[in-house]
Amino acid sequence: TNPSPSPPALPQSQRDLHPAFYVAVWISLSSSVILFNKWILFTAEFPIFLTTWHLIFATLATQTLARTTTLLDGRYRVKMSGRVYLRAIVPIGFFFSLSLICGNIAYLTLSVAFIQMLKATTPVFVLLATWALSLEPPHLSTLSNISFIVIGILIASYVEIDFHLSGVIFQILGIAFEATRLVMVQRLLSAKEGYKMDPLVSLYYFAPVCAGMNFLIFLAVEARSLSWADVTGKVGVGVLIANACIAFGLNVAVVFLIGRTSSLVLTLCGVLKDILLVILSILIYGTKVTLLQFLGYSIAIAGLVWYKVGAEKVLEHVRLLKEEVRERKVRGLVAVGVAVVLGG
How many angstroms separate the CA atoms of 35 and 243, rounded? Predict the structure, then answer.
């Protein structure tokens, strides 16, 4: 998703739904896409084809929605031109393609649990990309704030049982490409010309160029070793369509989640989703996770929340939690006292 997107106006019927509904839908779809992709890539090893198929489907779906619904009306507020598309959208699409391909390749050798642990380093790479592209000046204090994320992931990686260097390299490259993409999108959205767009409108512009780039990479890398019989025999057309529908549904869910909640809620939902995926990976795939690895991941998650939410808000929530616990203790003591008096 894009940083600080402009949420679309939701119809009254959708605003009446509780925010928890959108949270549940987003977490369910996000977790389902990752587990579904892992199963497909475990069954048939064609990561680049799968990514290309997702982007082709997203291109067709966004073009259809643009012509039949109001979900993509936000594109009319974007001052897009051929020059902007070539100078901004295409480079962002290039990094988007690379991040998707590298991320999918990592699933061939790494467990879902370990990949989610590695993804906790995304804020670190985003910060480094922000400094590299001169969006913000480097600050030692900010670097120290994310040090716990790095320490936690190093611990989790050191004790990973099914450690594959090639998978880790592809995953780290995918995270680095994704971080670069996010920072480039941030720079585009903050431009004075006015390029504010929600995630679905972004996909409308990015999907075609990404699909084209991925298709060229597919032709160069996978096409010779992959036949249509491999696709239909090992996975099936119906499964691929269902997989693409869930992946696209996730992009639609993000739009409604941001429009109904906030970026803070989205951040916390992402943390909750990652933890849930680690647990599901253990239950479904029997992934072995050591106690020390859990400790390292816990340190990384705590550092992630501290960095993304902010120290002041974290301390404020801790204070409110302590007050709630204190009030409950007082109410409990009063209830015990009344019971003793009545019993006497």
Answer: 10
Q: Where are the beta strands (DSSP E) in the chain?
A: none
What H or E segment, with its residue span, contains residue 175? helix 165-189
Per-residue pLDDT of the chain (344 residues; tens, 9 = 90+): 444 444 455 455 455 677 788 888 888 998 999 999 999 998 888 999 999 999 999 999 999 999 998 888 888 888 888 888 888 889 989 999 999 999 999 999 988 888 888 888 888 888 888 888 888 887 777 777 777 778 888 887 777 777 888 999 999 999 999 889 888 888 887 766 667 777 788 889 989 999 999 999 999 999 888 888 888 888 889 999 999 999 999 888 887 777 776 666 777 777 788 888 888 888 887 878 788 888 888 888 887 777 776 656 656 655 666 666 666 665 666 565 555 545 55
Provide DSSP, 92-145: HHHHHHHHHHHHHHHTTTS-HHHHHHHHTTHHHHHHHHHHHTTSS---HHHHHH
pTM: predicted TM-score of the whole model, two decimal places: 0.76
